[in-house]
């Protein structure tokens, strides 16, 4: 068993440096994992969205919503670092005006990076969720719920920003293909989420 993300963080160690990024990138499959989620999945996470460094949106064209450490312990204590997929939902505060539209509060497909952001040499383990949807306003401080359903790939240290962007785009396609499978789609209706009408 590889060490979990939390064990790595506690030891202050990082995953083996520079995995064979280029080799991996050449033979990437369009769909990964079994036909139905297998343990440790599904993993449910929730917490208030925090500000990251803001590079995701600006540098990479892929804005991410960060979850606080205490919200991700459930995941980092059973999984390794890497890129995952599943569903997420942003929940606006009750009885307060919000800029979010109804379409923004649906259960939506997501990709998640659990790691050190090798490319940016971060000092802390972070859990960042990119929801595959065009939001027109920020939602920092709002509650976010997510169900993680599978693992896509390890985190790499890229030779260029362009290569990282290319792979993130690939990750999004893989996630959408994976979520097409009926046993995964089921989770978009899981009662853990706040289902239509109850927002
Ligand atoms: C799907 C996805 C895949 C990612 N893959 C990697 C990766 O392989 N290596 C890496 O260093 N960072 C990876 N990242 C993390 C980005 O570097 C990170 O989202 C970016 O630093 C933005 O963070 P910020 O908004 O906190 O600045 C990935 C992020 C996402 C959403």
From TrEMBL:
Pathway: Cofactor biosynthesis; FMN biosynthesis; FMN from riboflavin (ATP route): step 1/1. Residues 1-22 are annotated as: Disordered. The keyword ATP-binding applies. Its EC number is 2.7.1.26. One of its GO terms (molecular function) is ATP binding. It holds the Pfam family Flavokinase. One of its GO terms (biological process) is FMN biosynthetic process. Keywords: ATP-binding, Flavoprotein, FMN, Kinase, Nucleotide-binding, Transferase. GO terms for cellular component: mitochondrion. Residues 38-180 form the Riboflavin kinase domain. SUPFAM superfamilies: Riboflavin kinase-like (SSF82114). Belongs to the flavokinase family. Catalyzes the phosphorylation of riboflavin (vitamin B2) to form flavin mononucleotide (FMN) coenzyme. This is Riboflavin kinase. It comes from Coprinopsis cinerea (strain Okayama-7 / 130 / ATCC MYA-4618 / FGSC 9003).
